[in-house]
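A brief tutorial aside. Many learners find it easier to grasp structure tokens once they have seen a single protein encoded end to end. The record that follows does exactly this for RNase H type-1 domain-containing protein. Read the sequence first, then the structure, and try to relate runs of similar tokens to stretches of the chain.
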Amino acid sequence: MHACKDKAIGPINRVQRVGAQAIIGTFLTVATSVAEAEAHIAAAQHRFWRRAVKMWTDIHTLPETNPLRRSTAGIKKFRRYHRSPLYQVADALKSIKMETLETETRMQTDVEAMPDSQTVPGGSMQAAVSSSARNGLVGFGVAIEKQPPRYRKLKLKTFSVTLGARSEQNPFSAELAAIAHTLNMLVGLKDYRIRLLTSNKAAALTIRNPRQQSGQEFVCQIYKLMRRLRRNGNHVNILWVPTSKDNKLLGLAK
């Protein structure tokens, strides 16, 4: 992408022109830039540089132990000979302080087993979520078991929410919505150990390592609520519990 010069980009521009002509039906003599603008297609050079910027940013968000992360200093160094192919990208983006990029800590989720509970000054809490699709509707249920500090009486709360029609929602996004909704209810807690149980393994893996899956709005909301809970001294862990295991909370949440 960084080495794509004017001559090399000629065949790509011809493909861009054919695609734009197929979309809007222009004449063959129409300039490629005009056809791209009318068809709302980004120019090839713009798309290449956008990918280059993303790649350069991703390199700087790698952990310090990654060998590719440690090679960025050599990429930026100017040499007359044997210059890095990525030098042009580094030189074009040298005004951006990549070293000060804010990175997001991934939420820790356990998809193997449930750890033993530990007591903390504020108390402990277990919340189970479960989603379902029935009669053309998608919804979720939540069961919360709260153990206040100083051995007070155990509290149990259950509720269910209809999220929307099956044509617009699915059980996977409903599971993420249930997790976000539950965390939003707990933002006022302080110094609690919170275990959130889910029977949806895909949802637990998505929260641990979000990519480009559906339900990104709920994933962003979950991370935002997680930061608020952590600032109040809470410890939150999301656990995947197979449906084959006997779990009272998961049974109440369904």
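Self-check: The longest strand covers residues 124-134. If you spotted this yourself, you are ready for the next section.
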